Amino acid sequence: MYRSLVGLGARTGACLAAAGAVLLTAGCSSDGDGGKDDRPVVSQQPKGEDPFWVNPDGKAARQVAAYRENGETRNADLITKIAQQPAGEWIGPDDPEAEAEGITEAAAKADRDAVLVLYNIPHRDCGQFSKGGAADGNAYRAWVDSVAKGIGDRRATVILEPDAVLHLVDSCTPQEFHEERYDLLKGAVERLKRQPGTKVYLDAGNAGWSNPDALYDPLKRAGAEQADGFAVNVSNFYPTDASKQFGRKLSEKFGGKHFVIDTSRNGNGPYTEGDPAENWCNPPGRALGEPPTTRTGDPLVDAYLWVKRPGESDGDCKGGPKAGDWWPEYALDLARNTK
């Protein structure tokens, strides 16, 4: 399956703009032996290795603080593996300008780049766990315009509409919506690229797609040539090497277009047991993948990113909460399984 099934990001508000530092020390409390645990909740790699912003008030950081407050040092250390890495901020539907502004301002204050995910296309996710999206084309255009205004001239890497093109190709989205969707995606690329510090990567599926050549024309119609590149493996589990091979095939069709890879949960590759039709949704035994970085060792791969926020549910399957909700047990498993 090619669904991302990630819920929309939480509202950020003024707290993010004030949280430009890359350390969050609040939440240090007693550890198991009664001593004081003064380690920071959030830290990150040097900017040269990882230029992306870590949200010090993200769900993983809050979970770390809660575990430390309760003296659960071991669990806090595990979730720190997630909290200290930058992850995509999924822009919500209600106040996109303020949300994008808050995130990018906080990132700019920390001298880092924001990673934003736009996931609000009409008729999203074919009525599955992450169904919804903008009410119509005009509402979507207005929403994208608001996001762009919120970004302003600050640096941002935008992942545009996970699964939107794939669901046109696999016939999941009804034919009557195809022309509008192509127009909306191309328009979104054009609008976002008017912002001087914004890079745009159009979602292009994952290595499980059997025929990458079939994606070329749809991606072209959706504005891939005007984008900085495309994104692969968003919210999926395919190994990085397989994703590179898949991306290179697409890149060749576009004359050497660059791409980014979501490595957030691909440490153990895809789940291959049980019903293959459900292996995309909260599969057990998965692990965190390579940390976000621009040092990928491949001139075509601009970055490894954690587009999907590890620890957030894919949907109410396998005992999980609804899509996008924080699931601490799953987050702990991802961290435990990481080598």
Task: Describe the 3D structure.
By secondary structure, the protein is of the alpha/beta class. It has one domain (13-336): TIM Barrel (Alpha-Beta Barrel), CATH 3.20.20. 31% of the residues lie in helices and 9% in strands. Helix 4 (96-109) links the parallel strand 1 (89-90) and strand 2. Helix 2 (59-69) packs antiparallel against helix 3 (73-83), helix 3 crosses helix 10 (328-336) and helix 5 runs parallel beside helix 7. It is globular. Mean pLDDT is 88; it is low at 1-40.
In short:
The protein has ten helices and seven strands. It is an alpha/beta fold and 339 residues long.
Strand content: 5-15%
CATH topology annotation: TIM Barrel
The radius of gyration is 19 Å
* Known CATH architecture: Alpha-Beta Barrel
Q: What is the count of structural domains?
A: 1
What class do helices, strands and sheet pairing give?
A: alpha/beta
Count of helical regions: 10
- In the CATH hierarchy, what is the class? Alpha Beta
Task: Report the mean per-residue pLDDT as an integer.
Answer: 88
Oligomeric organization of the protein chains: single chain
Using the alpha-carbon principal axes, give the shape. Answer: globular
CATH superfamily: 1, 4-beta cellobiohydrolase
Number of strands: 7
Query: Which strand order spans the largest sheet, edge to edge or round the barrel?
Result: 1-2-3-4-5-6-7
Pick out the low-confidence regions. Answer: 1-40
Question: What is the string of helix and strand elements?
Answer: HHHEHEHEHHEHEHEEH
Largest sheet: 7 strands, parallel
Helix content: 25-40%
Instruction: Please give the alpha-carbon distance between the first and last residues.
Output: 26 Å
